[in-house]
Amino acid sequence: MKIFTQLLLIPSVLGLMTPMAVQAGGEKHKGHHDHHGSHMNMGDSYPSTMFMGKTTFVLGEVDGVSDSGMGGMGGMGGMGGMSTADEKDGTVFHYDTKLMFMTSFTGQDMLKTAVRVGNFGMMEPFGMMGEARLDTAFSSSDSLELHKAYYQFPVGDDIRITFGPKLRQDDLLGVWPSTYPGDGVLFVLNQAGANDTYSKKMGAGAGITWSHEKLVASALFVSEDASNSSIGFLADEGKDHITTQLAWVDEKFTLAAAYTQADNGNTDNSPDTNDYASFGISGSYQFGDDYSLSAGMGWKNPDNEDSPDTAMNKVEDGNTWSVGFLWNDAFIEGNKLGFGIGTAETHRDDSGYDDPLAMEAFYDFIVNDSVTVTPAIFVIEKDGKEDVNGVLVSTTFNF
Questions:
Q1: How confident is the model at residue 67 (pLDDT cuts 50, 70, 90)?
Q2: How far is CA 166 from CA 162, 204, 227, in A?
Q3: Do the beta carbons of residue 48 and residue 24 sit within 8 Å?
Q4: Residue 312: what pLDDT?
Q5: Domain of 274: which CATH number?
Q6: Is there a domain that residue 199 lies in?
Q7: What SS3 class is residue 16?
Q8: E strands, the chain, in order
Q9: Mean per-residue pLDDT over the chain, rounded
Q10: Secondary structure (3-state) at 224
């Protein structure tokens, strides 16, 4: 890859700038970002609204990606085999911008509205259907889109209810059972090891979370076709996902078990890789102040498998797993080093199947309170095909 060395030199150059840039955000700006995660700090008068934004630039390159554009559809009914011998090998520059508004009417509730714009091509290697999908990838062809809209409020001291016309599965969960990687590189390694259980599907949905001391329980659903007038909300033909989760949250560790039922709008009981039940166990452990280890496993059972069971017929039981390690304050205070490894897709028990893995390593370099530069490298193995190798540098601006 031609730009590998140049990309990895960028953090070194920025390191020379740090003494000049570190004060750019200022202490007041740092305090603002310390409260991004809490709508409870908006002030004493209500309604009150907090605004936050995030822009990410991604400069990267991959090789081993098929030029057919179909490789990223490996999980869609076995279409991953449609590729040509030609491969993409070029340097790309993408961006993703999120603008988020959080309004509280009582000091205990939150209305979240987020708009987003990005130029990741849907079928490009880093895109949402690509062979090396990034966690930050968003495809809107430079058009501003409503990304999320949901409302969350408490009932008593132990219950929280969330609902809205546009949200993601993890917005409804009581616990995200992983500390890795926070702002990740590969999407496939940011699903707590149970990729089919924690699918992170988007749509309309609702959920309820009950928490008491260290025990947290959630039940939720997401309907992908709720805005489609020809299908509608929770219809038989709609793509619906129902998830339940039970978690134990301690000071040092988190452990969660979750179950998801997805139907993909399948009404004829035909074999469908996205019509399944899935179970996952995930957790994380904190070693002292600086180190954490996250791991998870998931098991997927399609409602109807292919018959006969051959290598070409891919609708069958499978499993996923991942392990992620984080080192906070790595070498320099505030910086972070991470390494993750896990299944590149749901593994099948087929003779001759390669059990492909995905691996990544990254280093978060804090330029100042608002700017982070992250160089990363990754490898995504493919069943019976050439590995996808990549290198990138992302720059994140929080405001």
A1: low
A2: 11, 5, 9
A3: no
A4: 61
A5: 2.40.160
A6: yes
A7: helix
A8: 48-63, 65-66, 87-88, 91-104, 110-118, 145-155, 159-168, 202-212, 215-223, 240-249, 253-262, 276-287, 291-302, 318-328, 336-343, 347-348, 357-366, 371-382, 385-398
A9: 84
A10: coil
